[in-house]
Amino acid sequence: MIECNVCHSKLLPPMTTAVSKAYHSNRSKSSKLHALKILLVVGDCMLVGLQPILVHMSKVDGRFKFSPISVNFLTEVTKVIFAIIMVLLQARRQKVGEKPLLSISTFLQEAHNNVLLAVPALLYAINNYLKFIMQLYFNPATVKMLSNLKVLIIAILLKIIMRRRFSVIQWEALALLLIGISVNQLKSLPEGTTALGLPVETGAYLCTLIFVTIPSLASVFNEYALKSQFDTSIYLQNLFLYGYGAIFNFLAIIVTAIIKGPISFDILQGHSKATMFLICNNAAQGILSSFFFKYADTILKKYSSTVATIFTGIASAALFGHTLTMNFILGISIVFISMHQFFSPLAKVKDEGPDGKLEMVDAQDLRLKEASFIDMSAGATEDASHRVGSDERKLLLPT
Fold first, then answer.
1. Residue 101 has what pLDDT?
2. CB-based burial of residue 343 (10 Å sphere; 0-12 exposed, 13-18 middle, 19+ buried)?
3. Does the model's pTM come out above 0.90?
4. Domain spans of the chain?
5. Which is nearest to 342 in space by CA: 306, 311, 377?
6. Contact predicate 177/337, CB 8 Å
7. CA 314 to the chain's CA centroid
8. For 228-260, how does the pLDDT look when each residue is reduced to its tens digit (9 = 90+)?
9. 161 vs 22, 84, 355, CA distance in Å?
10. Which of 221, 238, 19, 293 lies closest to 110 in space, CA to CA?
11. CB 320 within 8 A of CB 142
12. Up-side HSE of residue 169: CA atoms within 13 Å toward CB?
């Protein structure tokens, strides 16, 4: 058994193994971060739910009077300023003997170690522009539901890149999520509407494919990069990530100015109070996401964003008169069933530790949750006790 584990660990790519160790090390402290995860989920629901509402309010006669790239650039600049302030505050609280954050050698070394953050920064720059394009052709609730399609692609990428393991029940929950989103999407666009100059069917599906794939890659690469350098300060990593993002968006502004003329270089043209709120909301959402990716995981982030769909749908109905159709209600119901199924303690699988050995995931916590579940299901005691029996645990523990 030990030889098999050793052989299996040798088959893992070196970079994947490093990420796996950092990831499992982080998960071993998850009980201490439970309160943080709750705050992240609540904050994410509010910010993500509000984002498409603010984008919709920023439109004038169905169009944007400002450059979406300028909004993205100002958002990245705002996040850079926040990261700098937090790095300075963290440096002041450092103890004697710790590696100084503000030293040039430390900064250059950490910048070299976290150069991979340039990849998600570029993908996010593309995705943030696509968000505005999608808002021109879909109502806010639909955009939010479409973004939840990312969860299945993210799960596949996590399995390939970070070697995450999901149970059959969890894969079924993800499939159920897609069904719920599809139910909501039925007849979401008026007949005859065009998107990007293409027929509805072609344009909508093409936009959806790009809108789903790019941010999924960005999220997984972001989690990969943050957790592979887990010892690096989150604020320093944010500084690198947002710095790259600001550079990419600034380059896009320059290219736009070359194509459309110098007037496009005015990054404040066409902005209003709604866009200023949008910039602050997007900045807060991006900062919150980095904590999700480092201290929680991408799947939890996407499911928490799903909850924001309810807020988005209700708010858009109240503010803009959008109808909450039966498709929307049914879709939301299916999505919640999917969430319950995915995070159910009975759906959890045994994880593989960083050394390649099988170990029980939160065995004590799982046993307690199963006990409460059994109290609600008469006659299931024997099956549950067998599921976490001592004999089975002995077989899973290394010898």
1. 82
2. middle
3. no
4. 18-169+193-324, 360-399
5. 306
6. no
7. 23
8. 998 899 999 999 999 999 999 999 999 988 888
9. 14, 30, 17
10. 238
11. no
12. 12
